[in-house]
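Feature request disguised as a bug report, sorry. It would help if multi-protein outputs had a clear separator. Right now it looks like this:
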Amino acid sequence: MARLYEYQGKELLKQFKIPVPAGRVASSAGEVRAIAEELGRSVVLKAQVWTTRRASMGGIQFADSPAEAHEKAKDLFGLVVKGFRVEKVLVEEKLAIKQEFYTGIIIDDTSKMPLILFSSVGGTGIEEIAKTHPDRLARMSIDSLTGLRDYQARNLVRRTGLHGKLQFQIGSVLVGLWQIARKYDARAAEINPLVMVKDGTVYAADCRLTIDDYAVYRHQELGIEVAREFDHPPTELEKIAYNIEKNDYRGTFYFIQLEQNFKKGDNYIGFHGAGGGGSMMSMDAVNKQGFKIANFTDTSGNPPASKVYRAAKIILSQKGIDGYFASGSGVASQEQFHSARGLVKAFREEQISIPAVIRLGGNEEDLAVEILTKYTRDLPAPVEGYKKDDSADYCAGRLRTLVDHYREPAVKPEPRKRPGAEKPYTFQTLTGRVTFDHAKCESCESKICIQACQPGILKLDGDVPVLAITRETAEKGKCIECLACELACEFEGGRAAYIDLPIPGLEAIRFLNPEA
């Protein structure tokens, strides 16, 4: 789920007439001071991070004057709270709180309906409230067609012991929160605490909204960069990976960086899984061998070789990893030779200089391991392929042995450059471009590219390969980007084929971080 910062959530609350404290967000200590001067009263400074319990980590500060706000803001900006570096601070009027409440809306997976909760006790998490004050907590399922009616919201509040004007005020807040959740496809919408001040007015003192990943495209106005629920702001590699997934519907690709500040010899590895359960088992296996995991990656759901290739390139862009481990479900339904070709292309382009152990259990695993073994023998670092009968524990042990005995070249091999073509014949695919150098094709005796092309989209025109279908059909996905023609041509043909699969933004990161 994609999270919004508190200040973003409160902007939505205001649009739906839910009162919030006066104030706005700042990006510098100078801005904090200016906002405090505008408010002209005591203020609270709130670090904008995706985590709870900010106060206990120094993420919430109070100030009685603009000068004090300015000084405290200097300490807030740059503060790291659970992996978040504070870059924005919400400056709000300090409320004279008389009473705290809780309300939230979640999607109940059991009933398959939205569930609204309200408690006349607030200030802690809903789980704690449910344990300590079960009589002060009320809940009800919401019919998505009819929505939450005013009288239903008031009745929910009344069940917790609140009546009169307060019951009406809070009921209106609940209806507004439902309208926000409905409009923006929220998986969770929470106000904790909802507070009443001394004059009886109710305010949303805090707000947390998470948007369904698959609905983010409908809400461009929210400015969500990555539709994933991270426990940290998305890294540049995570943004690049998400854009690949967003723009390619075939299969699934998740990439999450678990650690960044490490160096060679720290025992961090790039992890590449396939399927949730098998990936968890495989991660346990490498942990037992003393490795630490730099990233979690999942390519499953029968992705094309091109998607696996991009995943591998991103994993290998992490500075300081000591090895590469790929292992997921041992009974995957996807054709594993696609994954093998994607990995081989990435490893060959990178001239991989760290040991890699790849477990490719599932359909066509024999062919997958054959491809992996055959096409990586000449690389600087060892690459080993295994099948479903080779346990994740055994494969992790092999990686341990390889890493312990491998000595990286004194000079890191240069990544392979894209070849030029004297007589280029090109066509677009769904996410890339295929080029054949017909000058080399003319002297090729095997014409292996025709045989290797599983979907049969190539044919011979005299001595050279050309499309057997229209260019438009190839670009729409008839070319499945299996990468077979390039690899077969390199090893058994005239080295005339190259498939360009761009990864927007990746080269810029590598230019800024050349050791990666």
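(second protein starts here, but nothing in the output says so)
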Amino acid sequence: MSVGATAEKIDVAIIGGGLAGNLLARQLRRSCPAVEVAVFERNEEPAYKVGESTVELATNYLLRKLGLSTYLYNEHLPKNGLRFFFDSEARDTPLTEMSEIGSRGMLWVPSFQLHRARLERDLLRFNSDDGVAVHRGAKVRALELDENAKGAGGPGRHLIEVEDARGTTRYACRWLIDASGRASVLARRMRLRTEERHALAAAWGRLEGVVDIDALPEPAWHQRTHYTARALSTVHFCYPGYWIWLIPLRRGQTSVGVVCERGRFSDAWRKPEGMLSFVREHGALASLVEDARWIDHGSYGRLSYGTKQYFSTARWGLIGEAAAFSDPFYSPGSDFIALENDFLTDLITRDHAGEDLRERCEVYNDFMHFRFEATMLLYRDLYGTFGSYELFRVKFIFDLLCYYNLWLHSYARDEHLDLSAARGHLRRKDFILDAMQKFAASFRRLESRLRAEGRYYAGNRGRFDCRLENVEFLQRVGQPRKRKDVSRATEAAFNEVRDLLLELKGEARGLGRAWVPIYEFLEEGVIP
């Protein structure tokens, strides 16, 4: 193909009208309305998808940058944080007796449970009304990257050939964005996909008739959380090597899924009855889904993968699952969409103004690779820790404090879009990743020790923890904080988790322990 007079010219072509592509189109219209945007979605109507749960970074993006607060509260559900339950080895502990980690009230920083099909359908409508050229039932049959597009200010355009009900049409675009999900149209064409040794599989579906856990007749259990809505949380039932989620959706629907190490995955779960049979092997869950009815079902034999590159000065980019996917445990997928869309919106806006993109492209790619690797270190080879309340509680405190202090605060300040601040984060990359690797190794060592001593399940009954209430800097997230204050909070988090690990090993609380300066955490033996 070659770009000719018969090709319709547009500024930005987005392949895929799912969550990532729709949000980028909306952001571009709000940030740079002079840029012409077209979305090409292969389905006539959005299909149900998993990925319903948002966390705080993505929600900050949706509310602050896309103006969706009223819509989300009207059409979707507010989320009451992440909640974790822990069972016995026999998987027979009643729900109200399981140890629990979760909140005792709606959280100060908001998040949502999304009905993906409804959200994507509404976003397509919003975008169309706002001047985006939305093409439904549009299949990209061919594409050609124009080499002349390389370098700032170049005249080149990419060419895509699209087939829809009207026939075949060619479009010449200045920017080509792959938001096609796991189809990864551009990423596969350019061989950008990288394998990730974090081997997971998953099966899921939507059900009607799941029992409302807030309706269980256990007053003492409800009083423990100050009668907050547990059912609005993303609920995790945690086991060694796998976990099962419950996510509420509007109008009586519940998303249910199993995520596990690939070696544990059963082909029987690829069918609704097989997956539901496995869920019912867990006593507490069996009581919740006893009379449930399937709406739809899906599965993936492989979840995690990366990419060699996210953005290019040749004016193309990858977003959402077309780029990379880490792990759904802490619901980070929409966080990555927020970062990728911010970076691309900034690049496209600057390109439209005639700026040179080379420096920013390099920094933005490095930042995304850093963020992806840091996220993978939360999960890689750590699924064995999930089934122990005592061990996972320590890991969750570490993960939680790092997320709020390092990632959410930085995003809320838009530091990722400031070259100086972004470079500052990248200068600290090796320290952060090394510290995370050392803590992960400590969690794995302690898992082996607890199993060997028969203590792995010791705390899985009757305990409750809400560490989020004691995050002293939480209400200052996004407010001006000096770099030294962020470093001090990181140092405090590292020391707290180190002390908890030592206690779990059997050392008495505060037994001759000196405060460890942050830089010493890279030394061998400091983290037990």
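Even a blank line would do. Unrelated, but nice: Confidence is low (pLDDT under 50) at residues 150-154.
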